[in-house]
Amino acid sequence: MSKKSSLSEIRGLIIDMDGVLWRGNEALPGAVDLIPALRQKSIPFMLVTNNASASPTNVQNKLHTIWVDIEEEEVLGSAEGTTVWLGEQIEPGTAVFAIGESALHTALARAGFDMRARAEGVRAVVVGIDRQVNWRKLTEASLAIRDGALFVGTNPDPSFPTERGLAPGNGAILAALQATTGVEPVIIGKPESHLFEQALARLGTPPKATLMLGDRLETDILGGHRAGLLTGLLLTGVTRREDVANTPIKPTWIFDDLPSFLEELRKSA
Ligand SMILES: [Mg+2]
To answer: What is the per-residue pLDDT across 223-259, written as a single tens digit (0 to 9) for each?
Structure first.
């Protein structure tokens, strides 16, 4: 813990998953205990991820393998968040071109958008991580954007962690499209505000009494600050303690791991 503030004011949590609950496919210490501890204290939570390839069902199934049961409504991924946001901008039935994996295509199609394979007539281009991205898809997206379609990115993450190291993330695909079109995308995921606003609306808790728990300074903690939340940095993901000294982004609390967070939460009762 970096400060002496108490966790007792916390009424709700927004929880990042990768680097918090698990790393790759491996559950992190304390992951099994977090959700039951929050349920026991009647603290509502939302599991929020920038990863547009994870659907609420994928997350539910993954947690089930470590014996943690959650409702699909307790998960908000950037594919779903982007679909909700887009539905506030354009009517269902409108033509949309998407670069992304099945979670994104499914979310958009379910919301009633007319999913197209070519640029002609498209009103919005939605871009999420796509491990099958190619020149043809980039060309259709570029043509539509140059023709005035709304350009939306699910998340800005420049890299995507794999067992062998960092691979290009959605930010790299967005950068290619931005280089071609000169247009900057609207970003829905962390650190921008849209995903936080949707999570807060579902929680129904005030920002000042809501804790963003995550492992990345430039998305979880920065975005949490911008949204007016309390922030807790966990050192089980990409950030080391010494990284915090070298950045202006200061979390409200720093925890070595989930067990130390849970210990503080227990003491704050
Ligand atoms: Mg993370």
So the answer is: 999 999 999 999 999 899 999 999 999 999 999 999 9
Question: pLDDT tens, 99-122?
Answer: 999 999 999 999 999 999 999 999
Report the 10 Å Cβ neighbour count for 149. 23
Centroid of ligand 1 to alpha carbon of 227 (angstroms): 17
Tens digits of per-residue pLDDT, 38-86? 999 999 999 999 999 999 999 999 999 988 999 999 999 999 999 999 9
| Residue among 103, 99, 92 at smallest CA distance from 125 | 99
Domains plus CATH for the chain?
Answer: 7-50+191-267 (3.40.50.1000), 80-187 (3.40.50.1000)
Q: Is 157 an annotated catalytic residue?
A: no
Could you confirm whether 243 is annotated as catalytic?
no
- What is the Å distance from ligand 1's center to 215 Cα? 5
The DSSP annotation for 233-247 comes to: EETTSS--HHHHHT-
Which residues does 178 contact at the CB level (< 8 Å), separation at least 6? 184, 185
Q: CA–CA separation, 236 vs 259, rounded Å?
A: 11
Give me ligand 1 centre to Cα 144, in Å: 32
